[in-house]
Amino acid sequence: MTDRLGHKQTAAMFTLMVLGREVPNQELEEVVGFTLTGTERTGLNELGYVDSDRTGPRRSYVHVLSDSGWAWCEKELVAGGPPPQRGQSPLGLALYVLLGGLNDYLERANMRLFQLFQPGEVAPTPAPAEEVTVTGSLEERIRVAYRELVKEPRGWVGLVDLRPKLGAPAAEVDAVLKELSRAGKIHLVPEDNRKALTAADHEAAIRIGGEDNHLLSIEAL
C-alpha cells in the first residue's frame, strides 16, 4: 500500500501524471483550479515525489513528477479508494474504480504508467514480440524493445537483453545504435561491475571510442 496523501496533494500528483511534463503553477490553476504551494508543495518535495523549481513566469514554481512520484502513482492506482475523509464523495470513489481499471489495462498491455502519459504524443500499443522482428524500422524496433524491458523512466537496459528482440544482424544493430548515440537520442555506457559480466554480455556489447558499452537508456521514448 502506498503512503496516502491529502486530497489536494493527490489531485496535484494525478494532474502532473496526466500532463507528463513540467507544469507551472499558473497552468495548474487553469487546469484544476489550484496551485501547488505552501506545505502541500514542501511535503511532496520532501517525500521526493515532486521536483519544484522557480523557473516559471515571474519566478513562480514549476513542478514535475520524479521517478519516485511515478512509482507512487502506479501504487495509488490499486489503493481501492481515495484518502480517508469525512463524508467520502461518490465521485471520488468512482475515480478510484476508474484508476483500478486503468491499472488492469496497463498490465494487459505490458505497459508502464509513464509510457501512457507522454507529452505531445499518443502512446503506442506495444507490438507482440513476434511482430517486433518483422515490422518497423530498426530504430522503431529498438524503442519498442526498450519499452518492453525498462523498469523505470530513463532506466538502463542491457544490450544482451535488447538484441534478441530486434531480429537484425549485429552489424546493422551496431550501426543504428552508434548513429542514435551520436545524435544524442540514446545513451550507451559500460557496466560498472565488470565482474558481473557474462560471456553473453561481452558478446552483446558495442564498442565506441575504444570502450565496450553494455547498457542502453532512452530519455524520450
Short description:
The chain is 47% helix and 11% strand. With 221 residues, the protein is mainly α.
Structure description:
By secondary structure, the protein is mainly alpha-helical. It has 2 domains: 7-116, Arc Repressor Mutant, subunit A (Orthogonal Bundle); 129-217, no CATH class. The protein is built from 11 helices and 8 strands. The chain has helices at residues 7-19, 25-32, 38-47, 67-76, 90-109, 113-116, 129-132, 138-149, 159-162, 170-182, 199-204, and strands spanning 23-24, 50-53, 62-65, 157-158, 187-189, 206-208, 211-213, 215-217. The strands form 3 sheets. Strands 1-3-2 form a 3-stranded antiparallel beta sheet. Strands 4-8-5 form a 3-stranded antiparallel beta sheet. A two-stranded antiparallel ribbon has the order 6-7. It starts with 6 loop residues before the first helix and ends with a strand.
Characteristic key phrases:
2 domains; three-stranded antiparallel β-sheet; 11% strand; 221 residues; Arc Repressor Mutant, subunit A; mainly alpha; single chain; elongated
What order do the helices and strands come in, and which of them pair?
Elements: H1 7-19, E1 23-24, H2 25-32, H3 38-47, E2 50-53, E3 62-65, H4 67-76, H5 90-109, H6 113-116, H7 129-132, H8 138-149, E4 157-158, H9 159-162, H10 170-182, E5 187-189, H11 199-204, E6 206-208, E7 211-213, E8 215-217
Antiparallel strand pairs: 1-3, 2-3, 4-8, 5-8, 6-7
